[in-house]
Amino acid sequence: MLAEHIPVQVRRSGTMVPVQSLRVGDMLFDPLSGDHVEILDIFCNCSPDMPGLLFGIAQGRLGSGRSSHGVAVSLHWQVPVPGMPDGDENPACLDRPTAERLDIRLPEDATLFAIFPERDCFMMSCGFCLRVLAPYPSPLH
């Protein structure tokens, strides 16, 4: 799920739109296949509990070669400490209190969006390539 205002790539040219502006029938650009994939459904959830399920990582805090945008991520996501060597089996990760000190502001009524494409695909958002699953079995499952 993506938090409101997170940009999503919709065109090969790199055109990005905020996730909340996407509609059923819109296309996502899959950077791995080079194709566009139709959105079949979008689910959104707005709850006062959402900020408690997320933490923010400030702009530029993910380290070199990683997204330079501020991002909101699940409390369950393991965030490697910036500057640690890649390939370590057990990389040092930011713990929740440390991550909260790096906080970006999340609105009290944060809205999260789940996107369901016509087939499993990948999409670009904030410098990350994210796997997006179709609502029914497809060849990538």
Descriptive notes:
There is one protein chain. The chain has 141 residues and is mostly beta strands. It is 7% helix and 33% strand. The chain has two helices and ten strands. The strands form four sheets. The chain has a four-stranded antiparallel β-sheet, with no helix packed on it. The radius of gyration is 16 Å and the shape is globular. The mean pLDDT is 75.
- Mind describing the biggest β-sheet? 4 strands, antiparallel
Computed Rg: 16 Å
**Number of β-strand runs:** 10
Low-pLDDT runs of 5+ residues are: none
Please, what is the average pLDDT? 75
- State the shape: globular
Helix content: under 10%
Strand content: 25-35%
Strand arrangement in the largest pleated sheet: 1-8-5-4
Number of domains: 2
CA(first)-CA(last) distance: 18 Å
Order of helical and strand elements:
EEEEEHEEHEEE
The total of helices stands at 2
Which structural class should the secondary elements be placed in?
mainly beta
Structural key phrases:
two-stranded antiparallel sheet; 141 residues; four-stranded antiparallel β-sheet; mainly beta; globular
